[in-house]
Every structure is written in C-alpha cells, then in structure tokens.
Amino acid sequence: QVQLVESGGDLVQPGGSLRLSCAASGAAVSINAMGWYRQAPGKQRELVAMIFRTGSTNYADSVKGRFTISRDNAKNTVYLQMNNLKPEDTAVYYCKLVTGNYWGQGTQVTVSS
Fold first, then answer.
1. pLDDT per residue as tens digits for the range 20-52
2. Is the four-CA dihedral 101, 73, 108, 66 of positive or negative sign?
3. pLDDT value at position 100?
4. H helices then E strands: how many in the chain?
C-alpha cells in the first residue's frame, strides 16, 4: 500500500524559506515521477514542481528560480525547497506519486507578515 506523508509546512514571513518533505512508503521515489501540487482557498489545485525518474525537473512559471524539487533515494523522500516566499504562495501543498495517482494529506504553508 502506497502512503505519502508531507511535513514542513508553517507560517513564514514574505521573503522567507521553507523546506517541505514527502516521505513515501510502498513505492520507490527513485523510479517514479513525483510531484508537488498546491491548492489555495477558492482555487483549483495546481502543479508546482515535478521530478521524473531520470532526475529531470519541471516547474510552474510562478515558482521558477525560487523553488527546487529534489529527492533522497536512500530516505525514499522528495523535498520542495521554497525560497523568497510570497503571500501568493499561501496554500495547502500536496505530494503526488503520479503512477497510480496517489496523494498525501497535505501540509499548510502560510506566507504572511
């Protein structure tokens, strides 16, 4: 059974940084495409970043240059390093294992002064 557990969400001031973690069990992050998505109140869930089996990555235009997705195969964990956070980054962030459409429970990120 696949489980994804996100952590690392918090309240942070604009310009600050956070690192989200997604610990996976039941599937290997090294051989699966993994994505970070977010959903703000009243908005649709959107793709933030993705890392593929090859290690290549994709980012939403709104986060390019500020966010970095990575993975630690030994820990079977995917990360999202978020720098220079803006109020518009406020959302619940979800981890997704693309094959099989598995989702985590989400972690809240709030950017506010």
1. 999 999 989 988 899 999 999 999 999 999 999
2. negative
3. 86
4. 0, 11
Tell the residue number behind the tokens 């959107």, with chain if given: 46
pLDDT attached to residue 31 = 87
Q: How far is CA 106 from the centre of its chain?
A: 9
Contact 23, 29 (CB under 8 A): no
Among residues 106, 14, 96, the alpha carbon closest in space to that of 47 is found at 96
Q: Can you read off the two tokens belonging to residue 37? A: 């998505």
3 state DSSP class of 69: strand
Pairs from 68-72 (Cβ < 8 Å, separation ≥ 24): 69/34, 69/36, 71/29, 71/30, 71/34
- Are residues 10 and 65 in contact, defined by beta-carbon separation less than 8 angstroms? no
CB 48 within 8 A of CB 85: no
